[in-house]
Write a structure and sequence with these properties.
The protein is mostly helical. It has helices at residues 2-64, 75-85, 88-115, 119-133, 135-143, 148-158, 164-182, 186-218, 223-283. Helix content is 88%, strand content 0%. Residues 148-266 form the MotA/TolQ/ExbB proton channel domain.
C-alpha cells in the first residue's frame, strides 16, 4: 500500500513539474515572441523614420532653396560682348584708331611737360652770367637748361656779335621752329578724332544693308531679325563716338598746353631782347 501511495505521489510530482516546466516554457516563448514583435515593430518604425528623414531632408532644400539671381555682368564684360557683336572688321579699325591716338597723346603730353621751364629763373641766371662773365658765360647757362626757351636764348646770344637786328631775327626764326616741334603730331590726333566716328557711321550703313538683305532673303519682316541687325549696325557708331570723345578731350588738353608754352616763350623772348639791349648799352 505504501508503495502504491509513493508511486502516486511520485507520479503527481512528476506531472506537476512537467506542467510547471511547460508553463514556464510557454511563458518564456510568449516573452520571446513579444520581444521579437516589439523589436520588429521598432525596426520597422525606425526604418520608416529613417526613410522619411532623407525624404524630409530632400524636400527641405527644395522648399527653402530659391532660384539664384542672375549675376550682373561687369562693365568690361558688357563692353567686350558689345565689341564682339559689333563685328571684328570696323570695330577693330576703330580700336586701332584709339590705340594710335592715345599713343600720340601720351608722347605729346610727356614732351610738353618736359618743355615747361621756369623762365623767370632762367632770365635771372642769364643776366647774372652776362654781368659776370659776358656772352660766353650766358651761353653756358643756356646749354645747361632744357626747353625751347633756353634754345631761343642760346641762338640769340650766338648772334650777338652780328647786331640786335640779327638777334631779333634769330629769336623769331628759332621760336617758329620750336613752336613747330610743339605742334608735331597734333594733326594726327585731329585726324583720328574725325576718322573714328566716320568709320562707325560706315559700319552702321553696312550693317543696315545687311539687315535689309536678311529681310529680303527671309521674305518677311521679322522684328527680331530687324532689331538684331539694327543693334549690330549701331554698335559701330557708338564705339566710334566714344573714341572721338576720348581723343577730343586729350586734344584740347594738348592744345591748351601748347598755347601756354608759346605765350611764355613770347614773353620770355621780349624780356630777353630787352636784356640784350641793356647789356649792349652798358658795354658801349
Amino acid at each position: 500500500m505504501r508503495r502504491v501511495l509513493s508511486l502516486l505521489v511520485l507520479a503527481g510530482m512528476l506531472s506537476f513539474g512537467t506542467a510547471n516546466a511547460q508553463d514556464e516554457m510557454s511563458s518564456s516563448q510568449e516573452q520571446t515572441e513579444q520581444a521579437d514583435a516589439s523589436m520588429a515593430s521598432g525596426d520597422s518604425s525606425s526604418s520608416a523614420e529613417a526613410a522619411e528623414a532623407p525624404m524630409e531632408e530632400a524636400a527641405a532644400p527644395a522648399e527653402t532653396s530659391a532660384p539664384a539671381p542672375a549675376q550682373e555682368e561687369e562693365y568690361t564684360q558688357v563692353l567686350r560682348r558689345y565689341f564682339i557683336e559689333g563685328g571684328a572688321g570696323f570695330m577693330g579699325i576703330v580700336l586701332v584708331a584709339l590705340i594710335l591716338g592715345l599713343a600720340i597723346v601720351i608722347e605729346r603730353i610727356l614732351y610738353l611737360t618736359f618743355s615747361i621751364s621756369n623762365n623767370d629763373r632762367l632770365l635771372r641766371k642769364v643776366e647774372e652770367a652776362l654781368n659776370s662773365g659776358g656772352v660766353e658765360a650766358a651761353k653756358e647757362v643756356c646749354r645747361g637748361e632744357r626747353g625751347p626757351v633756353a634754345t631761343i636764348f642760346y641762338e640769340g646770344l650766338d648772334h650777338y656779335d652780328e647786331g640786335i637786328e640779327m638777334v631779333d631775327k634769330s629769336i623769331i626764326s628759332v621760336g617758329s621752329v620750336e613752336q613747330g616741334k610743339l605742334d608735331k603730331g597734333v594733326s594726327w590726333i585731329s585726324l583720328f578724332i574725325a576718322l573714328a566716328p566716320m568709320l562707325g557711321f560706315m559700319g552702321t550703313v553696312i550693317g543696315m544693308i545687311q539687315a535689309f538683305d536678311a529681310i529680303e532673303a527671309a521674305g518677311d519682316i521679322n522684328p527680331s531679325l530687324v532689331a538684331g541687325g539694327i543693334k549690330v549696325a549701331l554698335l559701330t557708331t557708338v564705339f566710334g563716338l566714344i573714341v572721338a570723345i576720348i581723343l577730343q578731350i586729350f586734344y584740347n588738353l594738348i592744345v591748351a598746353m601748347i598755347d601756354n608754352i608759346v605765350n611764355k616763350m613770347e614773353d620770355a623772348s621780349i624780356s630777353f631782347l630787352d636784356l640784350i639791349i641793356e647789356f649792349e648799352k652798358k658795354n658801349k
